[in-house]
Every structure is written in C-alpha cells, then in structure tokens.
Amino acid sequence: MTDTAQQAGRPRTTRAPRRLPYLVRQLITLLVTLFAITIVIFGLTAIAGDPARDILGQYATDEQVVAFQHLHHLDQPVVLRYLEWLGGVLRGDLGTSYQSNGPVWDVISPRLGPSVVLVLLSWVLTVVISVPIGLWSGVRLRGKRDASLTFVTLIVAAFPEFVLGLMLAILLGVWLAWLPVDSTAVSYGGLFDSPSAYVLPAITIALGTIPYIIRLMRANAREVASETYVRAAVLRGVTEPSLSLRHILPNAAPPVVTALGLQFAGLIGGVVVAETLFGFPGMGQLLAQSAASRDAPVVEALALMIGALFVVANLAADAIVVYVTPKLRDTVR
Amino acid sequence: MTTTQTTRQDGDLAAEGLSVGYRARTGLTQVLADVSVQLHSGRILGLAGESGSGKSTLALSLLGYRVSGQEILAGRVAFDGRDLDRASIKELRKVWGARLAYLPQDTATSLNPALTIRRHFVEGLRRHRGLDNAAALARSAEWLARVEIPEPENALHKYPHQFSGGQQQRIALALALSVDPEVLILDEPTTGLDVVTQAHVNRLIVTLARDAGIAALYVSHNLALLATVCDELAIMYAGQIVEQGVASAVYAAPRHPYTAALIGAVPTIASDRPLHGIPGIPRPSVPVHTCGFAERCKFRTDACDTDIPLVTLAEDRAARCVRLAELPAFDPGADHAPATVVDRAAPAKELDAILTVDNVGVVFARPGSGEPFVAVDDVSVRVPAGRALGIAGESGSGKSTLLRSIAGLVRPSSGTISYRGAALAGTAGERPVALRRAIQIVFQNPDATLNPRHTVYQSLERPLKLFRPDIAKRGRREAVAAMMRQVRLAPDLVDRYPRNLSGGQRQRVAIARALLAEPEVLLCDEVTSALDVSVQASILELLVGLQAERDLTVVFVTHDLGVLRAVADEAIILQNGAIREEGPTTRLLREPSHPYTKELIAAVPDPERANEFLSGGS
C-alpha cells in the first residue's frame, strides 16, 4: 500500500501557497477570461477590415464613406477604438448599430428572452434524455442491444444540425403537421405565447449534443459499475433503482457535468444554425444576419454575451463537480 | 484457538464438489475443480493460495455471485437447505447482506466514495432488518464503536475518504456485521494495510466473528496470517484444494509440497526459518491428468502425471499428492537449501560509510493555514558500503520520504546527505550525472514505473543510453541480455510490453533497469509489497544474491518486519519521522528495547503466538 492512501486522514502535502477561497478564485478566472475574450472579439472584427464601403454600397461617394468612418470613429487607431468600446461596455453601453443606427442594446434585447428560453430548453432536453439513457445502457445493456444503441448514437452524431433540423421539419412539420416549421411567431406577443414554435429548434439543438452525452454517461456508468464498491453494494443486497441512482450515478456524474458545461459551446453553435433554419427570432439568427451585413458592433456585443455565457457555464460546471464530489469538496477550499 | 461461544447450526454454508469455469470467445477455462469446503458457525476457515489460484472465485461462488461468463460445471453451493448456485437473483438479494456478508479486498474501494457512512449503514439496516431511521442510526453508531472508530455519531456523517485505510476497513467490517449475518466472506481484507493496522483489523474480525457465532471464510495469500487467525485451513492451487486441515497442524507439519513451499515463502521474524521463493509461475487453469503443482515441485516423479484425488489422512486432514505415503510431513523450519537470511560476521561499524545522512529533516507546508507537517524529523544514519540498511515503520512514518530525499526526489528542509563524504545536492536534477548513476531507486509498483508503451528492451536500454555511453549501440543488446539473466528473466521476454508480463517479472525489469546503471547504492521502496508472497520471496532472494555478488549497498524501505529480517543487515525503526531504534536487524527483532519496536513485532502474525496476537500483543 502506498503511503498516500494510508494517510487519507492525515494531510500530506507538498509546498502549497496560501490560497484565496475557491469562489473568489473562480470569480477572478471569470473576469480575466472575459477580458481576454474582449480582446479576441474586437481584434477579429478589426481584422475583418473597414465595413464602410460594404454597408454604404458601391455607389456611395467618398465623402459619404469618410462621413461614415468619422461617425463610427473608424478613422481612429484600433487600440483607441478598443479602449473606447471597452469603456462603453463597462458602462453598459454596447455602441451603435451600423445598420439601424440605434443603440446595439435595442437591437439585441427583444431577441434575448427567446434565445435564453431556447438554450435552456435544449439543455434540459439534453440532460433529461441523455443522462437516463446513458446510465441505463452503461449499467444494464450488454451485447447486441448495447451495440445497437452505440450505432444509433453514432448515426445521429454524424449528421450536422441543419440536416437533422430539415429532417425533423419534414417529418414533424410537413408530413405529420404537428409542429410549425417556421418559428417567426415567437417575435409576436409574449415570450410564451407560441410554445410550439420552440419545439423543433430545441430538439434540433439538443440532438447535436445528446449522442455525445449519452456515450460519455454510458462509458462512465459502465466503469463505475465495475468498481468493487458497487459489487460490495450488490452483495449487501442493494437493488435497483437504488444501485444505479445512489451508488453509481453520483460517482459517474462528474465528468458528464464537466462535459455539459463544455457542450454549451456546441449548444450555441446549434442555436445559430437552428434559429436560422427555422426563422427563430433569436440571438443566433441576429448573429448570422449581423455578420453577413457587417454590423460589427452587434456582432461584438453578441459574441461577448455568448462568450460570457460559455465561461459562466463552465465555471458553474466546475463548481458543481466540486460540490458533488465529497473528496474534492474537502481539498478545494 | 479460542472456543466457540455461540453455535448456530443454520449458518452453515458449504460448497460440494464445486467446479467453475469461465466462458470466453476462446473457449472454456476451468478455474475451480471439485472443491468442497464447509463453513461452521463460530469458526473461521482460512483459504490460502497465490494470485490466480481460484480463491477469489471460490469466495464469490460461495455467495452465489456470478461474474458474467462464469459457469457452474458441477457441484453445488448449499446454504440453509437451498442451492445458492441455482438461486434466482431475487432469492439471492434476500440473503445477500442479510444472512451472507462480504468484505472485499480493496480497502480503498470497499466503501462508496460518494456516500456518507450513515447512508451505507442505514440502507442495509432498513432493508434487511426493517429498522426505522432512528433505530438504524443508533445501531450503526453502536457498531462503529465496536470496531473502535472514535466519535461514532460524528463519524456517521463523514465520507469514506475522511478515514484512514485501516479505519475504512474497520467501518466496512462493522457494516457487514451490523445486519447480524450468519456467514462472513473475507477476501484479503487486510492486504494493503500496515502491519499494526492489519493486526488491529484482524483482532476485531476474529473477536467479533466468534462472538456473533458467524461462520467465516478468510481468503489470503499470507499463510502465516491465516494460520494465526483461522481455525481450519484450506490450501488452494490451480483451482483445486491441495491440503486441508486444522490450521495449526497444517502450518506446523504440511503434507503437500506446495503448502510447505508456501510456508517457506512467508517472511517471518520469530524463527530462523529461511525464506524461499517458489520457482515458476502459478498455473492459470485446472490441471488435467496431472498434478497442478508438478511443474514447480521439487518432488516430482512420473507418477505425478495422473488425476490425483484428495486423500483423507485423518479425520480432519486431507491432502492431494501421489507421494503422500513416501514423503514424510515437511518441517518448514528445517530446510537445507541456502538461507536468504543474512548474517554477516564483520561488524558494520568498521566499514566505511558510503552514504551518510546527517540531521535530515523534511517539512511539508499544509495547504492554507496550520502547522507545517514534519515528515522526517532530524534523522541521522550511516550506511556502510556493501551492506543493506532496512528502514521500517508504519505508513506516515516518513520512511519513504527519507528514501526519496536520498534519491534526490524530495529536497530535505534541513541537514545534509553525503555520498562518499561529499554532500549531495538537494535534488537529483542538481546532481552530476555520475552521482545520479551511482544512486538508483526502485519503486513499489512496477506498473506505475514502467512505461506501458516501451518494451522490456526499450526500458532497459535507457539507463545504458543515459549513463553508459561507453557501451556502443551494438553492445547494448548484449548488456541487456546479460542483466536479464542476472535478474532471472527469460531472454524471450525482451520484446514484450509490461502488460504481457506478470507482476513479479515487471518488478524484475524495474530492478534490472536500476542495476544497468551500475549503481553503487540501490534504494528500494517497498519493492515487494504489491507482489504475491511466493513472488516476494523470489525477489528478495534475488536482491540479497545480487547485493552479495555485486557488492552493492542497498537501502530497503518496508513495513513488513519479516521482509526486513530477510534483506537487511542493519535497520532503523521510524515513527512519526524520527528514529526510535537502530541496530543489527537480528538483534533488533530478537531483543527490541523501544516500546514502538515491540508494538511492531507484536503486530506480525505468528502462528506460534496466535493467542498473544489475537489478544493484542503484549
């Protein structure tokens, strides 16, 4: 036996500096990451070049171009423009849209609610579908049936979201006519006035991550199920569902939680595709439209929001992993 | 042995002519053949054998537990009038945990890391004994107190990792016994624990099991331990019981050559019994028309190539050997082969010290605030050239840290370590190549120190490339082959990967790798504690032999005093980082003067002092 295992109750440490509390460290990580994101975002839009000519059209006069550049401070050095933008962001001013000439916030805000609902819906769908299936297949399924499930998940994973979305639209929207193929209804009335408009985009987005989470959950559950402490539990007479839910799931879940945090990026990618596909009036559609029309301030603001969401989701996943793993809870302080 | 206090006839569990095999794509491998054992209330049956002998399969089969691919080929497992081997999963779940309890091998994983101790207990007590929450909690606390867990009420709310390995195994024992089972199956329950902790857990197992009138099966590869704690013994080899009888009688006068060999492989401290490995590796499956042990047996004749029955010698004694009539009972104490035990004439003090450790301390900062942790506390020791120094102590005594600081893997916080009179730099990276070559280390677990993607040759070639540029590329293969012969590795293993080697072979590769650097000093960190007894004995034989042949200086860290006696001329006993006692090993073990040394010695299982051991040593 190694000394380390023996000393579980006794601290055995290497040199460790005095550390800030876990939550404070996480918060600092969040701020530093967000700052780095602003640089990357602004840098990328700056590299994309001067949008004046694209926006004003090929018949605009040089005077009009100069006026546009002056209006949007495009004639100033990049660094200065970045600092100005960053200062605005910190004050809550996201800038002025090139297209609408109004505040960026006014362009984004009506689309925020629907998109958040859509993302949460697809995320919940992912969890509710993949965790039970993955757990069940990891613990119980063997042989041919297990192989078939793996095969199905692989097939689904192999299709890009726009193909899946189209197939769903044809099946559920056209043939069966259960659901609207077009989600523009969301932009009229209240947030929850047309619930059916959310369904197809949400399923499409969720299908992008579900196969991956199922496979991860299955692999982890299978590994934990072969641990001696699970065998010991079986030999103490523990039966299902207690065995899977209490003895296996808590030990198999942490990597899946981390993955669910990381999959947020995949989810957001899916949002852009699905919103465009179904005409869903959300941030993803706006992002695609604004990028096409070279509306840099809107793209920057959206990218920043999505980046922030991604970082927060990951940090939250980390925190949850620490919280649900007793061993980590004691070491991470 | 002590007398039985309670007798409950209903608790008897028996395997009758049990044969078990595993079905795989390649066909059927039989792992148990015609095994009959019977457990009796209030008594402990010891089941001994090397890895792969089928003892764990038997333990699980007795519970009616089936691993996938496992098939019962013949025989039955009878418990309380029913056949467990044929029982439905529903029936089994009624007896598992309630009437049949199981204590698994791995101390670190017998409890679920995600659940509190309370949850482990309450689950079973509610299900099997119908207790309500409050009653279940009270009963759990009571049992935790019985296995000597401090502050039982408080302990219930903790998680397994918040306890030491020994405490975890005691909790698992309490968990198994709390539902008041009739049968307890123990699968190597103390392997991996320290001697002192091991003794503590074993005392509890024996006392509690006997008090409750439980019929127990104790599986272990350590025959000395089994002979100390069990009433009866069954020795298993290649899926067959080769000898069976009253524990003390089997240990004192074995009738089967394998039993004798197994006893000879256990390092002991009490007698001057020499230590011998068993050559060869255990047979992985049941023998057909031959004796399973024949290929490793000294007493083999042509008559051995037949199906050999288990012959009843007396009312409670049986053995499976064709030559029982000709061969007298073995006397494990009197073996004529050269002994591994070292006892050299020249007093160590007159020899030059090759390594000197002067007032070395190693202090680790604890995370966050709090007192720093003193791992090694002001240790001074001199290691004479060409001798073997043993460092013994429990886990956390600082013995490994001390060794690592000599190796330059841990920088000492204070003091100096000198090699041939010159102070060594704190870490290996700061030491010149010549010194790094001169001091080599071998670790406990070869699985973790051999690169799984390197063949034996690639692993062994590295020290040559690093330290011996004088050997041309062409000469390396020769040097490697020569070294493999020295550590008794078959030459055809040279292109294998570690996963295709046995544990003993892997450790030999690790030793060969260290020796290819041509070191002056070889540091060994618990190099045999992950190995089977018979393999351990042959590795120890090898080390002692090599040390004499090459005039090597060895520093050997171990928690096993029997191993210490087998390899070390001189020894130091460490506790909490400080030296408690030092001196020639034989004297230290025969006439210990420090109470801590005495405690360590009392914790070593010794069948000749079984009652002393079980009552708590002193």
From TrEMBL, chain A:
What keywords does the record list, in alphabetical order? Cell membrane, Membrane, Transmembrane, Transmembrane helix, Transport
As recorded in UniProt, coiled-coil segments are none
Give the matching Pfam families: BPD_transp_1, BPD_transp_1_N
Its BP terms in the Gene Ontology are:
transmembrane transport
Tell me the SUPFAM superfamilies matching this sequence.
MetI-like (SSF161098)
- Superkingdom of this protein's organism: Bacteria
PROSITE patterns, A to Z: ABC_TM1
Asked if the record carries the keyword Nucleotide-binding, the reply is: no
**Family membership noted in the UniProt record:** Belongs to the binding-protein-dependent transport system permease family.
Protein name, as recorded = Peptide/nickel transport system permease protein
Automatic annotation (TrEMBL), chain B:
Citing just one GO molecular function, the answer is: ATP binding
Subcellular location(s) per record: Cell membrane
- Which CDD domains does its entry note? ABC_NikE_OppD_transporters
Q: Which N-terminal residues, if any, form the signal peptide?
A: none
Which UniProt keywords are given for this protein, alphabetically ordered? ATP-binding, Cell inner membrane, Cell membrane, Membrane, Nucleotide-binding, Translocase, Transport
Q: How does it sit in the membrane?
A: Peripheral membrane protein
Give the protein's recorded name.
Peptide/nickel transport system ATP-binding protein
Give the source species: Asanoa ishikariensis
